[in-house]
Structures
1.
Amino acid sequence: MRAVDIIIKKRDKKELTSQEIEFFIQGFTKGDIPDYQASAFAMAVLLNGMTPFETTDLTLAMAKSGQVLDLSKIVDFAVDKHSSGGVGDKTSISVMPMVAACGLPVGKMSGRGLGFSGGTVDKLESIPGYRVDLSTDEFKKQLKEKGIVVTGQSLDLAPADGKLYAIRDVTGTVQSMPLIASSIMSKKIATGVQAIVLDVKTGLGAFMQTLEEARELGELMVDIGRLAGRKTVALLSDMNQPLGSAVGNALETIEAIELLRGRAPKDYYEHCLHVTAHVFVIGQRAKDLDEGRAMAEKCIADGSALEKLRVLVQAQGGDVSYVDDISKFERAKYIEVVPSPRSGFISQVHARLVGEASVALGAGRAKKGDSIDHAVGFLIYKKVGDKVEAGEPLFEIHANSAEKLAEARAAVLSAHAFSDEFVSPLPLFYE
Amino acid sequence: MRAVDIIIKKRDKKELTSQEIEFFIQGFTKGDIPDYQASAFAMAVLLNGMTPFETTDLTLAMAKSGQVLDLSKIVDFAVDKHSSGGVGDKTSISVMPMVAACGLPVGKMSGRGLGFSGGTVDKLESIPGYRVDLSTDEFKKQLKEKGIVVTGQSLDLAPADGKLYAIRDVTGTVQSMPLIASSIMSKKIATGVQAIVLDVKTGLGAFMQTLEEARELGELMVDIGRLAGRKTVALLSDMNQPLGSAVGNALETIEAIELLRGRAPKDYYEHCLHVTAHVFVIGQRAKDLDEGRAMAEKCIADGSALEKLRVLVQAQGGDVSYVDDISKFERAKYIEVVPSPRSGFISQVHARLVGEASVALGAGRAKKGDSIDHAVGFLIYKKVGDKVEAGEPLFEIHANSAEKLAEARAAVLSAHAFSDEFVSPLPLFYE
């Protein structure tokens, strides 16, 4: 078998066999197949596509390129919840403790934020001391003992994916459905969880801008999960406007903690309860979504979810007092409430523009390796469909420089659009 | 400007600007743009195509990646003749001396054979001492003093092409019309000739298997030549069966020399005279093809073309006595005449199968850098349309091992097909 023949086969729109895909990925991981063959292959895949079978083979080959954890020896059943990325999406920080509080072990390895989209581990790092570099042994030990773990991506898992992603990033081959799906799923499969709830975002602030694309990605990942023997469900949720109110690392972490006290913006609360209910159903802790939702509400009401968050933060070296006293979180130097320039109905809060404004404040990275400012960001007060009066508070800016504050004010004002007519609120979920 | 954005633009089927193409090729030549970006770019070009303008820009950028010779300071007008490659195609060795004999300077840098297709410099090397590694200074000096030079490709000319070809070869991106055309034309333009006659082969033994593909390639190269200010004409000629009789390096060189004595298979003779006539017309030495043909015939009849070949061989260090006594050429150990297994009309002599059998005998390279055996090959006696009796000589094998001889016999027999009905001969030229 030769790498060039596999590239040619994909170039000519033919279906690759499992053996061919495994040969390619193994050779690439070991360095026998050079980067320039991998990039030509990625471009051929991007332009000619892959069948779900090929995509599954690619996923499994990347998962098997490193260590594949067997969590069944550690816990009966472990679940993971993954979001395709968006603005203000702090869901994992609220959902994982709720799930663990009901006795379902949750193990998550999460990426960092890149571009306008935030990352769970960046957010959690706004709690001083919180470690996101657990080894796979620490991951397994904590999952067994505490039933909850949320750390960064281990380099031992799916190294082919990391290597291929680095090439894709600089060769224009990121935006490929089979490559995106296999990248996400290879890491989930290597982590060893038995069930995965995928929250696929669609809209202005998501990687998948149309519902059709998001549905295709969701279905593809569910197919891969099923073919790989993992219970998988995909939800399609809105990302035209930011989720909840907070955008920025510490602000989002605070909002996620507050939800576990029953205090949260309505859209974010509904979103988290719906996701959690799905996790309980797929994890066979609830017979249907209604029962799952009731369980989620109960673990908030009785404080058990908040307690599980304390357990998580403590286990990973974080300062637990932050969970109990959110005023301890680092605050930005400048905090400004921006009033609405006019009356009317909110017709748009452009999620991507808000996300990019947040990156510009320092909350995100322009490129890999950049450091981030945890304190900065926004509180968005109004949602699409809300009625607003001129002069009423529209959003709040947290910034560490006066210059950036002014830029952010203009950017987020322009992310808002108004209408004189009534505007329907956006749905939280599409499917 | 960033390389990745140029790749993305081509990935998205947009037309690249001259500046973008030049930036990419310059960066690639200098090593600022790595191989893995070049291979992704090549795959995007292969799958999404390029306009003639883009292809011309790519050609000029590659030509300008190294030294571009200015031959106008050396001779009034220099021409080159290029074949897209085939089996038994020794045309340049006969045509170049005829052209030079009529006072039109000819300068050619030629590639080596690869795969089933032979290369002019490999054939000329069957004359002991013949140098194919002239420097560009030697090239210019010999062109000025002798009016004829045929050497290998200088590394100083179009280095981007050599570098890109090495990548294309191992990433499945060879078979792309714009990449093939720009590769050929960038070298011709860097050589500095003012006029180019392109002999584009089509058929079973050519890289372009269909007439449509060959026509497209021919038109594209003529467009590039015109846009680059070079007089360019493309002929489409048949390569379903080998050209002439001889296949193999020494055997072909002998056949090419013998043509200059007026002794040659009819198809090869007609082919060479037609090509030469075109060179005279484009080089403004003849007003039309008839006059060009008469000139070609005259320089064979009066021995001036043969004399020019002697001048060429001597100038490049070759043993001129080989030109005058072809029995001096190295001969293979085993020479076998294979009789026709049946009577009938020849309906096919599959050029590619003959070419591959010749490579198997050792006349060609399976991969770059392999050494070759100059003595081995075939003499093909019959052409499509010829009548043959059972037992009559069909072809002759020149081999250096008994085992390979047996393999070659079977392979070349299977390349021949017979019909009971009359079969029309193949045309020499299509357009």
2.
Amino acid sequence: MQALVIDDGIYFDGGYAKPEIKPGEALIKTTLAGICATDLGLLQGYASFSGVPGHEFVGIVVEADNKKIIGQRVVGEINCPCNSCAVCHRGDYNHCPNREALGIRHKNGVFAQYFTLPQANLHIVPSSISDKQAVFTEPLAAALEIIEQIHIAPKDPVLVLGDGRLGILIAQVLALTGCDLVVVGRHPSKWGLLLNKSIKVCLAEDLEEGYSAKVVVDCSGSSQGFNQARKLVRARGSLVLKSTFNSDSLVDLSSLVVDEISVIGSRCGPFGAALRLLASGLVEVEDMICGEFPLEKGVEAMKKAKEKGVLKVLLRP
Amino acid sequence: MQALVIDDGIYFDGGYAKPEIKPGEALIKTTLAGICATDLGLLQGYASFSGVPGHEFVGIVVEADNKKIIGQRVVGEINCPCNSCAVCHRGDYNHCPNREALGIRHKNGVFAQYFTLPQANLHIVPSSISDKQAVFTEPLAAALEIIEQIHIAPKDPVLVLGDGRLGILIAQVLALTGCDLVVVGRHPSKWGLLLNKSIKVCLAEDLEEGYSAKVVVDCSGSSQGFNQARKLVRARGSLVLKSTFNSDSLVDLSSLVVDEISVIGSRCGPFGAALRLLASGLVEVEDMICGEFPLEKGVEAMKKAKEKGVLKVLLRP
């Protein structure tokens, strides 16, 4: 089958072995896949991954024990837990220390014609949601994880640092709380969707002097983002971290104590809620698509996804 | 009056000017004062403080507008807010950016015969509480701040890293929740009070292989404590920071994201609750006292407080 492969760089392989399903898994034919910052990070060495990357998808089940799901259009959660350790037994499947993660950790991903996932990870996509919407389910779920973890109230001043793919999804989700939201970005060319939704967005230098937020979400994707976000969060506030990168950061821990800041790491989120918000149209995603490439042009697609001002780039195997 | 003074080192001054009260303040005669890690930190340059240090006290009001409190035995909150900024207006007085902090920031402290505090900061000490108990009100309140900030439930595995003054108070407070608590320390000579209360305590190397806690409180007082505490907190767990020190730390922020850890800075806490726990005897403090010095021997007292195995050292002006 066709696949993109990371192995000291990234290349297209027209004859990659088609995966075989393990007990409990389904074989899925990829309809559409999305490129995200983590995929670009893998190329920089994040998570020391080699194999087929990709974890944002919508596809069709072609093989599974559960015959009812064959032929169904699905999206899927990316963490594959062992189901037998203490962490799984307490229900924290996404944090199983033995987990595989689709296209990130010990498991080939979706930048290929076929891939496998446990049937338990799959969510059937309602017919009212298009493929181009459904492929955003995974990052939208990650955005929703923030409001799974902390309560954001309508009166709260909230700042999202970063106007990239994830920042725009997070801003749309947080705006649903009615909070006093501002997005701080660097690329006005990306701001159309936010402005259309009446979400405030500006450059950092255009924030009011002395502005601080009760909640700051750092999805800047850079190791410098933390210290910028820290300066923008007020005493007793929360700083939510959504970015992963490949280096340690120098942090003034004493200032977190003195100002009683909560720093909250946030990763994967609820797929069911993401599908509901896509079906209702409360979160809009199709305007974020900046290009669609066939798999054999996948290397070019990855380059495109890295360009300034580019939001979501899709692959169609 | 007599006072200890920090000014490029620390010295005893037998003729320091007696403070005068500003509007709304009370003049207090120090009965007993306690030396804490922050006082020792000030000597290392923390907060760039010069003047009279000290913020743990019990004393007698000798002068105040409110005649009813004159002669009363009091303890007092250490933060003196401006009462007029936006932070004060939202009720976060302890975080007022213009605040003075008793013996820490722009305001002389209690290692003197007399000092001043706003009347609004004072709490009258019930007669059932001894002076030697009351002098622990401030650090006990700081320990209680943890359960003001996060919910610790009876089934939670909880670890306190540090067997110093604050660690022992925190352990006593957290044990009241019924949680599955262990204190990790380095000085078995300090463990008597904990063991008497049936609180588990051990060396780090004696923890069960692979142990992790839902909540880890770092009160180790060192910049290395963070990374040790980080390794002991489980995915989706909370790492509470209680220590301040004078340097930045290298932190793997991405691992906080992947494991969805919450890092929670924690500082000053509720005095009313601290007085209730002292009055009820649920928290025991007098056994922590390792020495009492007159003010003229204050420099010696500070040295004593720094010694390994020493818990609370008191000054009696």
